Amino acid sequence: MTATAALPPVRGSIRPDAPLAPLVWFKAGGAAQWLFEPQDADDLSAFLRDLDPAIPVMALGLGSNLIVRDGGVPGVVVRLGKAFARVEQADATALVCGGGASGILVSSTARDAGIAGLEFLRSIPGTVGGFVRMNGGAYGRETRDILVEAQVVLRSGERVTLPVADLGYTYRHSTLPAGAVVVGATFRGHPGDPAAIQAEMDRIAAAREESQPLRSKTGGSTFKNPDGHRAWALVDEAGCRGLRVGGAQVSEKHTNFLLNTGDATSADIEALGEEVRRRVREKSGIELEWEIQRVGVAK
Question: What is the pTM of this model?
Fold first, then answer.
């Protein structure tokens, strides 16, 4: 894959050696070998159908839950743009959402339509595609509680609609195959009063602001909560609050967040996470699992 001619034609845009650091929350990491922004789902489907099956494909949302390693990401990174960011009301309690729509847009649209139960999406800094793949959740609710079905383009280019029962959901995990791209989803809530929905969204936003380092270069929650434990408490008990590796630091405000203090490489951030895992394992015997996705190759 050394020339554009090796790739199928597209109607959207495709760029070689595209820097990914500006597109992820950590503001660190290497480039995508190719960055593809499809014009619509048909464009994506045709491209994947005709792309050499040996070439890897990865979807990128808002980049909030992601470490892109410093050597970059081989193959094609698919980023869903404005064409995939629509949210429309399907009936009295359901929304049809594009895979590129943000949690804030989905929850705000639900509020305006008097649909309750989707307020928690206000607090997840990602897109519908990311929520569906990761079973994203917060404040006691998760994607599987509201998802009816997802529209997915498989790595083969085939377009399928998968009901929630077919996604194999567990905590922060689905069985969606590698290379599949979520292009849409239908969420269902229940009737609610817009003012009460807004009040709940405000409560969630205030709780996040108070407890999380929202104005920092971070990646969101770093580690999954082990059964019966809170990851942040295990990290704190292991003496990791404020711990640094290079330009990366464990947040003083919320110890399950890692920060890029200004000049961290992705190697710094990942090494810090591994050191935290080591210290927690040594202190408590518990093996923390990464919640943040780490992709690409080391430099």
Answer: 0.92
